[in-house]
Structures are given as structure tokens and as C-alpha cells.
Amino acid sequence: MKEKRKLFQRFLDLVERVGNKLPDPFAIFIGLAVFMIIISWCFSLFNASVVHPGNGETLPIKSLISAEGLQFILTSMLDNFTGFAPLGLVLVMMLGVGLAEKVGMLDYAVRKTILKSPPYLLTYTVVFVGIMGNLASDAAIVLVPPLAALVFYKVGRHPLAGLAAGFAGAGAGFTANLFVAGTDALLAGISTEAARFVDETMTVTPVDNWFFNIVSVFALTFVGGLVTTRLIEPRLGKYTGDAIEEDTTEDLPQTKKAFIYSLIAGLIYVLIIVGTIFIPNSPLTNEEGGLIPSPFLDGIIPIILFFFLIIGITFGIVVGTIKSSKDVSHYMAESIKDMSGYIVLVFAIAQFTAYFNWSNLGTWLAVNGAELLESINFTGLPLIIGYIIFTSMLNFLLTSGSAKWAIEAPIFVPMFMQLGYHPAFTQVAYRVADSSTNIITPLFPYMVIVLAFMQRYDKKASIGTYISLMLPYSIAFLITWIILIIAFFYLGIPFGPGIHARF
């Protein structure tokens, strides 16, 4: 076992060396955009097309080297950039989180709360918080990793190990949760529509994967903690970088008072939100009075933003780092300034993504890949495992979980139903494959933000460093999930209330 671990460490070292020889990410995505232009033209020469499995529409592969393609490139460039969803989410989150960080509130909170937790639980707590953070949608992917890095740094452990653990939980563990989240409702709706191709009465509910998700939280927390302590930290060694986190609040006499006041302000805000949810005909709930889906979940990013603004401004005023409204805007501007590299890179990513979608190459690859897998004629659990591997690979091309499921569900849900598998079981297989490889696909929108956080502690960190850190988590999570599916399958454990693998 020890020799195997050494071999794997050498493999990760090789991944890092090769990856670090790659060009700058901006150049990579510009190159991919150019490649997409050329490949779309090549496909169009053969009049390639694909039938969308959802609506039956025939979609031709459209050439970007054409009058229509040139018009799209020129007229959509600004919209591609400004309409790139993760850009707004990241910047809005950083307005609030960055303010709370700049005034010293987060640093003090880490020192006085998280650092007092038992050291042996710290790693597992970071992974657990990351997994549970998907209640706030993608916000956890932006929030948890940098906070985890700061925690590890403060206790004398390598900050990149903390960042990796937090990102693994929030990114690769995205589909797991102890509670029913918005993702459950979104995917269940798509699954229901696909299942009704075969059975018009079939309904997949948001709780049909709930039991499996609950078990997944604890399994992934344990595995993520082991990967961090047994593999990532030994490989990183002792952190010898410069101390980049300035300790500016410890000696201020008003710091403790400011922290208490900020907690009170934050609690009042939370109570107002909770109270608003429970009032009759609440504007934050749906027509049935529920939260899945609801304006509350749709507006979770602004709600989190206001929370951090309130606690950050309160802390800053009391401690004295905020003396006027100019200071508020100054700290917010400083936090956005730190994201300048990310903004530049997003411009290139947004163009490549838009070209990929407009040309219909993404749909062509997904549909034809699915048909190829179907032609293999796997049966039983090997088919499900094959499907998981297929989807995990497809995640390198199509990173949007809902969009990919909208393409795959009309193919695989009916096909597996014909073999006697419940659509919620197929949905589970999709979710674990999609989630586990999020953190290692270069097209994952949040890769660049995590890379930017890494470079705060290691200026030489590059794509190779990033992939070599995250690959062990991705492999471990995927293997863990496959084992869980096999256990649920053969032991007859329900995936949700009354939901088993077979009808």
C-alpha cells in the first residue's frame, strides 16, 4: 500500500509538471475558441446534424466560418461576456465577502471560532461545510475554499490543502446534502418529462434521491478528509510561503465588541428573512408556501450578499476601519480589484462556451456518445457504471449540470425504464458522475477563481498545480459514489421514500 501511494504521488508530480508547461489559461481558451471555429467549419462540410432527443428538432452543425457565424461572433461578443452567469455571481459574492474580509471581520471570526475547534475535526469540518454549502447553490464554491485556506494557514497547516478540501466538498460533492435543495427540484422536473415518454403517469419528485444524498454527505466527508490528510498534505509538505494575511485586528480594543455587534446584526437579518418566509403569502415562497422552488432560492445570492454587507459594515464601523460611506465603497473596490485576472480570463471562456453552444457541437457530441454507449449492449449494473463513466467524461465538454441532463435524460431515462430501472435511479447515476468530475474539468467556470485563490499563497501555482491537487478528490469521490450505488442496488436500500433501483 505504501509503495502504491508513492507511485501515485509520482504520478501527481508528473501531472503537475506537465500541466504547468501548458500556456496561460487565457491563451488556452482563446486557442480553444479558434479550434471551435475551425472544427465547426469541418463538420459543416459534411452536412452533419443531430436530432435533439428532447424536442425532436434536427439541429445542423453550424459553421462559424460563414456569414452567419461571423455575424454571431461579432454581435454576441459583449453579450457572451456580460451574460456569463458565473461572472456576476462571483463578483457579487466578492462585494460582500471581500468587504467583510478587508475590514478584518473574517480574520477575527476564524481566529476566535474555527481555530478553537478540535484540530482532528478541522479537515472533516471543512469538507462537510463545503458539501452542505450547495444549499446556497454555487455560492459555496466561491465562499468556502478561500475561508478554508485561511483556516489552515492560521493553524500552521498548508493553506492549499485547506483550499483543496473546501473546493472538493463544494464542487465535487455538489449533489449531496442533508436537506432537499433546489438542484433536486430542477433535475426531478427534467426526469419526469423524460420518464413520461414511456409512462405518462410517472413522476420523479425532489425527494426521490434524498436518502442516497444523506448517506453521501457522511461518506464523502470521511473520504475527503482522508484524502486531505493522507495524500494532499504529505505531498504539499510544510508551507514556507510569505504571510499574505495581515493580522490587523487582534490588538484593537474594540475588535471583540465589533465582532459581537456584527453577529447581532447578522442574526437580526437572518430572523427577518426567516420571519418573512413564514408570513402568509410570503413573497419568498412559492404559491403553495414551499421553498422548492421559490423566490428565496432564486434570490439566495443577493440574500447572502446583504448578509455579508451587514456584518462587514457593522464590524468596520465599530472597530473603526469604516468611518464614512467612502470607506465602504473603497473596500468593495479593493475586493473586486483582486478579481481582475479572473475577469480577463472569463472573457475568453465566455467566447469559447458560446461558440460551442451556438454551433450545436455540444449536443452532437452528447447524443452520439449516448447512442454509442447504448450500442454496447451492456445490461444490469455494468450498464449503469458504464453510463456513470460516460457522463463523467462528458463533463469535460459540457459543464452545465441541468443542460447536460436535459440532453441525456430523454435518451437514458426511457432506455433504462425499458430495462426495469426507476428514472430516479438513473438520475442518481447521472448526478454522481456530473458532480465528481466538476473540479477537474478545465471548462468548470469556477476553476479560474480557485486558481486565483491558490496564487495568493503560491504565486507559481498554475493549472498543473490545480489539477494535481483536485484529481485525487475527484477519483476518490467517484469511486466512493460507485460503491454506494452498488451497495444501495444489491442491498435493496431505497434511494428516497419508496424509491428503489428497479420498479
TrEMBL record:
UniProt key word Nucleotide-binding: no
Pfam families: ABG_transport (PF03806)
Transmembrane segments: 26-46, 81-100, 121-144, 210-232, 258-279, 299-319, 339-358, 378-398, 405-424, 436-454, 466-493
Domain of life of the organism encoding this protein: Bacteria
GO terms for MF: secondary active p-aminobenzoyl-glutamate transmembrane transporter activity
UniProt keyword annotation of Glycosyltransferase present: no
GO terms (BP aspect): p-aminobenzoyl-glutamate transmembrane transport
InterPro entries on file: AbgT
Keywords linked to the UniProt accession: Membrane, Transmembrane, Transmembrane helix
Protein name: p-aminobenzoyl-glutamate transporter
